[in-house]
Amino acid sequence: MALETEAKRMIAEFDFTKDDVNKAVREYLAEMEEGLEKQGTQLSQIPTYVTAVPNGTEKGTFLAVDLGGTNFRVCSVTLHGNHTFSLTQSKVAVPRALMETQVASELFGYLAQQIELFLKTHHEDHFAAHKGKPNSVPFFDLGFTFSFPVEQVGINKGRLVRWTKGFAIEEAIGKDVCGLLQKEIDALGLPVKVAALVNDTVGTLMARSYTSSGNETTLLGAIFGTGTNGAYVEKLENIKKMKMIDEQEGGSNYDRSTGMMIVNSEWGSFDNALKVLPDTPYDRDLDRESNNPGIQMFEKRVSGMFLGEILRRALLALHGHPDPKIAIFKDGTSADNDMTTTTTIDPNSNLFKQWGIDTSFLSIVEEDQSDHLRITKQILEKDLMVDSASTEDAVAVKMLVHAVGKRAARLAAVALGAVVIQSKRLETDGFADIGVDGSLIEYYPGFEEYIREAFREIDGIGEEGDKKIRIGLAKDGSGLGAALIALIAGGSEQ
Ligand code: BGC
After folding, report:
1. Is the beta carbon of 200 within 6 A of some atom in ligand 1?
2. Can you give the pTM of this predicted structure?
3. Phi then psi for 208, rounded to 5 degrees?
4. Cβ atoms of 149 and 44 closer than 8 Å
5. Mutation test of ligand 1: which of 44, 73, 148, 206 has the most ligand atoms closer than 8 Å to its C-beta?
């Protein structure tokens, strides 16, 4: 009982009530506006220079690459012009050393080599023809999905503002990432032109809009994966800072006739000042020991890279509790068979290592409905080297997992809900369409339902509004979406 009481006290720290949600939505709306007015705000609200959303009739073959987290993906995408497409891809894990190298060209050179390998494997004819006659073979337009905060100054130009998600290459900050990649592509003599710079959320929005049947366009593309972020369709006239940016950049070249532009919100840094975000001791410790303390505070409470680490710190606190009746993963009584068992944890357990718990651990435990939480015990053994965990311990683990996951989903609802409210689409169109991607939204049990539960509590959405919000998985945003933007960008060379 003592353990259960303590676990209940801890999970209460993760409560994010209806009032909290509404207060956070109000703050989000205020930050949205501020971000549209000036540069350098917490919510960056970055203009993307993408001024149209596809309707499914687009055609052609394009290359797309995706750097944004654990993997680097290269693909070629053929758009069939009837809402469908085919895609060939290869994927490699980005070597950890390259994420933190001193020399940016090491990372970008590696990416160019992967593109070369892909062309040799999947577009051998084109590759060989170009090697023979470099000036007569057409270049592939490439959409570069680069999912970090970038201050975009044109469709294929943008300066890196900061790294997130474990990347830290000082030298690249402030540089044009398309230029960095193009340089390495040219050094290898590849027939590829970096035509568009794409945030994965923008790609997700485009992909959802292309694949949805009918003429309705999507409002918002959101990622809940390793990191989190959203991009949405904004009226050009609302992006007040555009005039200033145009002046600074000497009058950027983009199509103003559509009256709209997709804005990359970079909501990972919503409320870095912690005015409305929840803050437990575990959040604080995680942030302090991260490689970017004080920033991406929303992301650090919502996305896959961090949920495991929040949980790990909470479990560690329970494990180290001075009261032996509370401390988990130590000798205990197993309720399954009424026997006293010896629970042990290996000193090399991932429980004791930063980033030692993966989000997939949370998904498995959240889903576990087995007798005496047998599955949770198994994964405790496999992932955390806990031998013979008691049912009481497993129950406490599950309670904490649920608290961390549910809080993340309710926070996600804040950002999504605020964008829906600001767009007024529920009133004007009678619905709002959202494309989503990322491991959390795809695999975390109940994530969408918890988001919807929170929607129903938000003033300005409620039961009725929730029914009008469509959320659909838009797989391949970073491939298909980037190809679509490369297509749009193809004609407008910067
Ligand atoms: C980055 C965003 C990206 C998101 C999802 C965040 O860490 O700042 O640019 O869209 O992760 O991948």
Report:
1. yes
2. 0.91
3. -65, -40
4. yes
5. 148
